Amino acid sequence: MSIRILIVDDHAVVRQGLRMFLDLDGELEVIGEAENGQQAVQMAHTLQPDVILMDLLMPVMNGIEAITTIKQALPAIELIALTSVLDDGSVVGAVRAGATGYLLKDTKADELIRAIKAAAEGQVQLSPQAAARLMREVRAPDSPESLTERETEVLRLIGLGNSNKEIAQALVIGEKTVKTHVSNILAKLGVSSRTQAALHAVRIGLVADSELG
Fold first, then answer.
1. Start-end of H helices in the chain
2. CA–CA distance from 135 to each of 89, 123, 158, 203, 208 (Å)?
3. Tens digit of pLDDT for each residue in 158-203?
4. Which of 15, 107, 110, 126 has the fewest Cβ atoms within 10 angstroms?
């Protein structure tokens, strides 16, 4: 089954370019294009894509607002911020809104394709520059959370970039059980995305900076 993608960018040339090389991969299928955040929200509901590539600077509704709205209504959709901006506010804003990944538009085509496939599995995808900024900006929760031993194991594997399927295999438990653990971890940490959970795993020393998925 192919990974269904929605491209969101206010520049037609960028959308066409992305569509052209993504369509060359048999595992990917571009099912729609939107030129602003508002259109992206409508199309996300209609098309139910697996992954959305979201520009951040757009008219009508910006990318961070769109990510927030889509993630609240359709949590199963994975969103990758694909942008030319690398300021702390944008990086932190996108991840807090629920983006699984943050990539720059100068990312090589093959790297972007790998990132889309990994994001479809729920794996964290950050450009090195974005990861560095997030490590500075995303603070650990004020109150110490009480993760169980199993939740701590799951958090470490999230930090290492493992998908739910891989975590299930590593811990010899069902994928449904992993999803429950992930939901509990996000709730206890007070975060809305796996990316924030992964960064927390680094902050508390479960995962080394260099191992971050």
1. 12-22, 37-47, 63-73, 88-97, 109-120, 128-137, 149-159, 164-171, 175-189, 194-203
2. 13, 18, 16, 8, 12
3. 888 888 999 999 999 999 999 999 989 988 888 878 888 888 887 7
4. 110
Distances in Å between the alpha carbon of 40 and those of 19, 21, 123?
A: 16, 21, 22
Question: What is the CA angle 206-78-177, rounded to 5?
Answer: 55
What are the structure tokens assigned to 151, written together?
């939740």
Identify the band that residue 145 occupies on the pLDDT scale cut at 50, 70 and 90: low
Domains recognised in the chain with CATH numbers: 3-135 (3.40.50.2300), 139-211 (1.10.10.10)
Residues with Cβ within 8 Å of 60's Cβ and at least 6 positions away in sequence, in order, are 36, 37, 38, 39
Give start and end residues of each alpha helix (H) in 62-174: 63-73, 88-97, 109-120, 128-137, 149-159, 164-171
Tell me how far CA of residue 171 lies from CA of 33, 160, 181, 185, 201, in angstroms.
Answer: 39, 14, 12, 16, 18
